[in-house]
Design goal:
This protein is of the alpha/beta class. It is built from four helices and seven strands; from the N terminus they run αβααββββαββ. The strands form two sheets. The protein has a five-stranded mixed beta sheet. Helix 2 runs antiparallel to helix 3. The two termini are 34 Å apart.
């Protein structure tokens, strides 16, 4: 979460940001709802940019910037916000909206009912940003998502998980 730019970045954070920028260069498949959320987040960041203009003036008037913590905090927050705008802009540019019917076999947008050792589970296949296994939302880049990708009802897949190999029988694809 955005903390107003008060947190200093460590080397590992900077390297992670570099990797994130590398990831921005690839195409990201998202649902129409996800793209709508991304655009709303982008709009919030642009609004925040305008708000910084309002608070920046009084911080500058408070005196010498080198001895002004408020000024430094505002500058750090502005830089963090501008970075977030840039990264989100690039991510949005690299998105491709997919609907369940666009892809052959299981892909983003599908709901899959599987049998795992006699227990039935239902998963919604989503992009990485919307993944939440506790809510049954799996990304295609997860081990289970990778195994299910492109498969159809009636197929069986084996998934290597930390607890061992698990067999998933695909019962239904919606």
């Amino acid at each position: 979460p955005f903390d107003g730019g008060r947190t200093r970045k460590s080397t590992s954070d900077l390297l992670s940001n570099y990797q994130d920028r590398q990831d921005m260069q690839k195409t990201h498949k998202v649902s129409a709802d996800t793209l709508k959320k991304l655009r709303a987040d982008h709009d919030k960041l642009l609004t925040k940019r305008k708000e910084f203009g309002i608070i920046f003036g009084p911080a500058v008037e408070a005196g010498d910037p080198r001895e002004n913590d408020e000024y430094c905090m505002v500058i750090e927050a502005i830089v963090a916000n501008e970075s977030a705008i840039s990264e989100l802009t690039e991510y949005i540019k690299s998105t491709v909206v997919v609907e369940a019917d666009d892809e052959p076999g299981i892909s983003i947008g599908y709901t899959v009912v599987v049998d795992v050792g006699g227990n039935e589970s239902t998963f919604e296949i989503v992009n990485e940003m919307d993944a939440n296994p506790m809510e049954g939302k799996l990304s295609l880049s997860s081990p289970i998502g990778k195994a299910l990708a492109g498969k159809h009802a009636g197929d069986t897949v084996n998934v290597d998980l930390p607890k061992g190999t698990v067999k998933y029988k695909i019962k239904q694809v919606k």
